[in-house]
Amino acid sequence: MSPVTIFHSGLVFTADAARSVASAVAVRDGRIVAVGGDAEVAGFRTAAAEVVDLDGRLLLPGFVDAHAHPVMGGLERLRCDLSELETAEEYLTAIGDYAAADADAEWILGGGWSMSAFPGGCPSAALLDRVLPDRLVLLPNRDHHSAWVNSRTLQVAGIGPDTPDPADGRIERDADGRPTGTLHEGATRLVERLVPAETQAGFDAALREAQRYLHSLGVIGWQDAMVKAGPGASVHEAYLRAARDGTLTAKVTGALWWDRDCPAGGIADQVAALAELRAETGGRYEAGTVKVMLDGVAETFTAAMLEPYLDHCGHSTGNHGLSFLDAAQAKQVVTALDAAGFQVHFHALGDRAVRDALDALEAARAANGTSGRRHQLAHLQLVHPDDIPRFARLGATANLQALWAAHEPQMDELTIPFLGAERAERQYPFGDLLRGGAPLAMGSDWPVSTPDPLAALHVAVNRIDPRAPEDTPPLGAHQALPLPVALAAYTAGSARAARLDTGTIAVGRPADLVVLDRDPLTGPPGEIGATTVDRTYVDGRLVHTGERDVLRH
What we know:
With 553 residues, the protein is of the alpha/beta class. The chain contains 19 helices and 22 strands. The strands form 3 sheets. Strands 1, 2, 3, 4, 5, 20, 21 and 22 form an 8-stranded mixed sheet that branches.
């Protein structure tokens, strides 16, 4: 008889539809064989190879990150990683140290800087020149919608006063029209085209590091929100290789990238090419989703808005942001993808982008019928109130990045003044979406922000960043979610959105489990963010043990 692992003497959050709880679970051969109390697991005691005393800690399904970029995050962790730093001086020190340690590298790559560290959210080439006067450099910010370069890189890329802004981006300039060193959206490609292509070994190493890190945070699976394929080395190939050789322990859905430069006449060809990539996948890596990017981000005034951004004085600028696909194109693309059996994963941050996405799903349904696809809209910083009930009607999942729904410098200095009070108050309308019946999922958008689910859950419940000063007010407290709802969204909801066979604790289900260091359901809401992960299991296999759990045992 196969050995059994038993968990007992703690709260078990099952994440099922009834939000039922238990106190004990038994696992055998990677599956859950008993859920309930001591009586339900008693018959498995004699076969138990391991008995885990939860000692009041919470056992729950493994987290599923419904929107992340793990390979990109892994690359940043292996390169010049600025994501844990906060100030311009800290960035410069780290960049200089990294460059000195690799003096032969032609390019300095990495990223993760915060816009709030610089005036107007835009670092200058002159600042970077202080530590990198003669090396080539490309450092995306945390949201990867902007990048920082030095004067040498601007020169080599041929970016000068006469260089026009691309249709899908903007070059930051001084009063005389000279580029200052920050590139937004499609303008980053003016430099990216010069960067040597990543090797397959580099992508493979990044995936391994990302997986190790995510398992340490209780994440057992994810939806990679931007998977590109070759020719040459690619993220898609990294997943295929890891799935084949058995090193992929996580359960992964890949959202294949939609090339927004595709002409209308080329939609069918691109859909066919994506279908060929989908056919290559299976097992722990499936790619039945396509990522469609509709707009940018509010901080750079590129999120697509129904009403224009304001200026520093509160007056309308006339700028409604960018739409990478117009409404008619979005309908064509989504209808074609839906007909081909793909589910669509939208980047839709502004309220105009959200409306365009919902209109496109409505057009697909009218053309193809009710497909059962699990289409989803990620980010949802602004949703017009008229569009809230459409999520439930269309079966569209609200894919939430909860960590962003809080006051912090980037929000208070670079966003709220340019939205105005009315729009600012209805940002990230999680509560309205819940009350409107929208299916909910959660993700981190790592490396844009930390992939720690407990940090995001803290904000979902409190609408306050766990690192914020004590007197920080909540951002739209009426949009907060109850913790059980948020936990279910980050487990069962995300698994459903990603079509992964996981997310709940029930007999017969995969033993994808997380043991926390406490029970946040019974503790103070203000301490949710202090919770850490003691153990992570995938299919019953222990893939992470935290330091405190080692000491405990």
